[in-house]
Design a protein that fits this description.
By secondary structure, the protein is mostly beta strands. It has helices spanning 44-48, 68-72; strands spanning 2-16, 21-24, 28-33, 55-66.
Length: 79
């Protein structure tokens, strides 16, 4: 099943201590595919490709939704 993970920031962004550059977050989406009955953990910087050598400060929400076409043919979630 493929899921879309939307990051909707209320405020915040990245800060590069070397250059003193600050970049404010904008809404982002990423696709995550899971096999049946599997789970996956991934850090937000890895999921969205944020630079690993920077600092992050933010607050917001994550919305996770399944691909509608895949979900329609998947049947009941528990059997």
């Amino acid at each position: 099943m493929t899921y879309t993970v939307r990051h909707i920031p209320y405020y915040g962004g990245t800060y590069d201590p070397k250059t003193k550059e600050e970049i404010h977050f904008k809404e982002q989406s990423a696709q995550v595919t899971l096999q049946e009955r599997k789970e996956r953990q991934v850090a937000l910087p890895a999921l969205y490709g944020w630079p690993p050598d920077q600092m992050y400060a933010f607050e917001g929400c994550l919305l996770v939704s399944p691909d509608r076409a895949e979900a329609a043919g998947a049947g009941p979630p528990f059997s």
